[in-house]
Design goal:
Elements (H helix, E strand, L loop, with lengths): L1 H17 L7 H11 L3 H33 L2 H16 L6 H8 L3 H25 L3 H9 L4 H39 L4 H11 L2 H32 L1
């Protein structure tokens, strides 16, 4: 509550300093947002964004888990690939946009690619770290029981690594959302990102502030829930 109040105060002070040229006050933005969410146009763009984000997140999570567990089970492969993943993670993803646009074109597939590319690496890195941190006795037990790789992951590795993996999922959630919205801004004609880019082109400050406000509220709200679950999982662990 105090954090929200502080942010609103800072926002209001920034508005008083800049004026209507580049900002709207919190109250103006909330009022415009209340009007915006009653339009069919908004819900059409929102549903498009949520659908693309949901699919991209599933792709990022499944691919990240597969990569993390595959490398975690092979120490040599992990030692070789982890620095490469870290280096790739540090590269601004905007550099991949021309390649992805050529590969997927403009539309839903491009948005999915943009979103998944942002989210897959943190999920993979956290999963790899979680598998590496598992007690060796658990791995030896699995080998003694002659478990197949899939059974090893399902019965031993995944339950033991859940807290750390969930942290990766939380980070992947935020980055996938960013990637999806960016994909809509540069490679789509539907979605909140497209709506935001169109508003920037028309210098529609009310729309820019409103869409940004909605994205921030959504991301902060879901991330707060995920953070609470994350802390509980680590506490139990």
């Amino acid at each position: 509550g105090a954090l929200v109040a502080g942010l609103l105060i800072v926002w209001e002070l920034a508005y008083l300093a800049v004026g209507d040229v580049a900002l709207r006050s919190p109250w103006q933005t909330i009022a415009f947002t209340a009007t915006l969410v009653r339009t069919d146009m908004f819900w059409e763009h929102l549903s498009n964004t949520l659908r693309a984000f949901g699919i991209a997140l599933v792709i990022a999570v499944l691919a990240g888990l597969a990569i993390g567990f595959a490398l975690g089970l092979k120490r040599l492969a992990a030692d070789v690939m982890e620095p490469m993943l870290v280096a790739l993670y540090s590269v601004p993803k905007v550099t991949f946009y021309p390649i992805l646009l050529l590969a997927f074109g403009i539309g839903m597939s491009a948005k999915l690619a943009f979103g998944a590319v942002h989210g897959v690496i943190p999920v993979a890195l956290f999963t790899l770290s979680a598998v590496r941190g598992i007690k060796p006795i658990l791995l030896k037990t699995g080998r003694v029981l002659k478990l197949e790789p899939v059974a090893m992951v399902r019965t031993i590795l995944f339950p033991a690594a859940v807290p750390e993996i969930f942290t990766g999922l939380r980070v992947g959630f935020s980055l996938t959302l960013i990637g999806t919205v960016l994909g809509e801004m540069f490679a789509a004609q539907h979605g909140l990102g497209y709506l935001l880019m169109n508003a920037i082109g028309l210098y529609n400050i009310d729309m820019i502030m409103s869409v940004t406000f909605l994205l921030v509220v959504f991301a902060a709200g879901v991330n707060g829930i995920l953070l609470a679950v994350d802390r509980r999982l680590h506490f139990r662990a």
